[in-house]
Task: inverse folding
């Protein structure tokens, strides 16, 4: 059964919360300490097949990170897998600190048998997010979990306090081992995910499901559901039998509240909805069905859970609630365009969200990024502007710090707004002007619903359309109340356009959230540089910085017994304030 409030979930993790007295009179801040042991479990078998499931402290999905705006989060990750490991924090902006972002371009991986501690702050954020392993296709094996960033008590929330909150991590799932799928990605023989899991559990009423998810509610009460698509490929439509959804938040932004019968959630996206238990006290179906799929109601790719009213003795019955035609993309586009920013409410700060808007901004630069497939050296790859990303042995951020990228990448070697003449593999790093408003146009030449995510930022979704984008497309933009979020869908043969304000210096991953596309090259990095060395502008590397690639840790000298009373030497400790060269 899903946990309702933060308290019960936190019992399952090692967590210490320390109030900082200095801030008590001004704001409430905390340090949250977590120890995570990440391992492969062969006994869970969520769909009754022998496969490794990646767990954290034995949990699948992983434990909740339950934070409040400006809390400091410390996660000590012990890698008990046989693959190198990194975690990324989907939607957490890592203000001034891309060293904690946890992707291949920012961090050396945590090697098997080793541990490393992430230290980051939920700076000026609220909302619904999730974390997941970012390298080696590990996300297909699990390792994901929910993140809540709650409002500080002094900030009013634009809806009454719900009776309880539920995290719904919904996503597609392969019936095979993630290692087997990974080994086949460079071939034409790559299957699609076979199942849809809700909080790691198979569909209700399916004989192969080891268990199913259920959510307990009390008649007359209202609940907040935090929904994330943690899958690898399929967008889904979410709905609850005989109940309406009131959309209130997405990825850190409060939205104009709209009542919906169902909600499309694309890979990597998160939403919060209110649901009132205003029906007869029986059980009801909760459904997540894939988009662009002919999956029928009894298909394993249709996720089914149960909304259980207290004291109900009547199981969910009848047909599953029908959703929109899964191939009706216009329904999905219209719904996406109806999601608007709430300009009058506060979020992480008491001032209204709408005080920072795009109505009269001046665009300094336009990126036009085209996603497609290509055959390179006989292998099928995904590409951006005909460049399939090649992951260097040395993280870009590390190279940036030690040698301004020399020997690892060349800044702006590939065009940000036209496609390369020939498909190539390369280290695609694009510059963005610090504090210069940037328009990013994302084009989709694939036959899937693609989703794009930018680490380090929320961007404003100003437009989306069919066919090729051109400058005249700007006439259709919504510049009054576009929603700010970090992941946007791009429909097949269409485009989406976002505005972003690059005020967060660092090296930031811009990627497809479709795991196969990402793994096979549909990504690049955006370098935002502020020449001011003041650490208040960008944090220096952490004291526990891992080294790899071109920059290996120094070999310690031979062990020599110290002379009596001799001071210990720290000559080989890494100095994060060293001068760049």
Result:
């Amino acid at each position: 059964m899903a946990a309702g409030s933060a308290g019960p979930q936190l019992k399952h993790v090692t967590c210490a919360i320390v109030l900082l007295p200095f801030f008590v009179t001004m704001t409430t801040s905390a340090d949250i300490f977590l120890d995570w042991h990440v391992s492969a479990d062969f006994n869970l078998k969520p769909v009754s097949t022998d496969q490794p499931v990646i767990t954290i402290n034995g949990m699948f999905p992983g434990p909740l990170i339950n934070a409040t705006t400006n809390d400091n989060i410390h996660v000590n990750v012990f890698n008990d897998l046989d693959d190198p490991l990194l975690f990324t924090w989907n939607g957490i902006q890592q203000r001034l600190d891309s060293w904690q972002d946890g992707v291949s371009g920012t961090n050396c991986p945590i090697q098997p048998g080793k541990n490393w501690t992430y230290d980051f702050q939920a700076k000026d954020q609220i909302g619904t997010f999730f974390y997941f392993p970012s390298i080696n296709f590990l996300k297909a094996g699990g390792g994901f979990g929910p993140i809540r960033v709650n409002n500080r008590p002094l900030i009013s929330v634009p809806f009454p306090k719900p009776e309880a909150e539920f995290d719904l991590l919904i996503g597609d799932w392969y019936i095979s081992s993630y290692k087997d799928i990974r080994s086949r990605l460079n071939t034409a023989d790559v299957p699609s995910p076979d199942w849809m899991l809700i909080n790691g559990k198979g569909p209700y009423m399916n004989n192969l499901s080891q268990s199913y998810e259920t959510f307990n509610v009390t008649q007359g009460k209202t609940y907040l559901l935090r929904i994330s698509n943690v899958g690898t490929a399929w967008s889904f439509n979410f709905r609850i039998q005989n109940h309406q959804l009131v959309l209130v938040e997405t990825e850190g932004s409060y939205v104009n509240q709209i009542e919906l019968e169902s909600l499309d959630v694309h890979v990597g996206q998160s939403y919060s909805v209110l649901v009132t238990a205003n029906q007869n006290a029986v059980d009801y179906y909760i459904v997540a069905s894939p988009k662009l799929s002919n999956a029928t109601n009894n298909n394993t790719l249709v996720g089914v859970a149960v909304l259980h009213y207290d004291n109900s003795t009547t199981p969910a019955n009848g047909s599953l609630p029908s959703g929109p035609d899964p191939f009706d993309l216009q329904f999905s586009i219209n719904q996406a365009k109806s999601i608007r920013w709430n300009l009058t409410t506060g979020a992480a700060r008491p001032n209204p969200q709408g005080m920072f808007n795009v109505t009269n901004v001046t665009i300094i630069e336009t990126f036009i990024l085209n996603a497609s497939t290509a055959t390179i050296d006989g292998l099928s790859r995904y590409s951006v502007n005909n460049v399939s990303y090649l992951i260097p042995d040395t993280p870009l951020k590390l190279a940036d710090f030690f040698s301004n990228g020399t020997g690892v990448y060349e800044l702006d070697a590939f065009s940000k707004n036209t496609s390369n003449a020939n498909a190539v593999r390369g280290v695609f790093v694009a510059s963005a002007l610090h504090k210069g408003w940037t328009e990013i146009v994302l084009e989709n030449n694939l036959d899937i619903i693609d989703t794009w995510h930018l680490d380090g930022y929320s961007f404003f979704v100003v437009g989306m359309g069919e066919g090729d984008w051109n400058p005249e497309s700007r006439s259709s933009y919504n510049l009054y109340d576009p929603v700010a979020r970090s992941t946007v869908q791009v429909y097949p043969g269409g485009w989406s356009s976002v505005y972003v304000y690059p005020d967060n210096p660092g090296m930031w991953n811009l990627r497809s959230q479709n795991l196969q596309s990402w793994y096979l090259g549909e990504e690049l990095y955006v370098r935002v540089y502020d020449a001011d060395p003041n650490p208040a502008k960008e944090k220096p590397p952490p004291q526990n910085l891992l080294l790899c690639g071109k920059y290996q840790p120094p070999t310690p000298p031979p062990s020599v017994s110290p002379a009596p009373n001799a001071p210990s030497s720290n000559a080989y400790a890494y100095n994060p304030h060293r001068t760049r060269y």
Remarks:
- The domain at 365-528 is CATH 2.60.40.420 (Immunoglobulin-like).
- The longest helix spans residues 329-338.
- The radius of gyration is 24 Å.
- The longest strand covers residues 30-41.
